[in-house]
Amino acid sequence: MIERLLFILFGVVLVLWGIYRMKTDDALIGKTQKQKNIFNLFFLGQASGIGQLLSGILCIILGIVSFIIK
What we know:
The protein is mainly alpha-helical. Helix content is about 80%, strand content about 0%. It has helices at about 1-25, 35-45, 50-70. The longest helix has 23 residues, at about 1-25. It is elongated and about 45 Å long.
């Protein structure tokens, strides 16, 4: 049970870190922050802000589903 809670907590941390990275990251290509974030997603993958945000959401969903399935 503690592992499931830690997995959800890890997802929350990833979501918050992803939001922070999306606001502050810079890229070589792109004039707006949205374009820079999309370029970083394709160039860096999961290390980008969008990638971390999506991974965090997935961790939270999987943690909740693990409580339901048990």
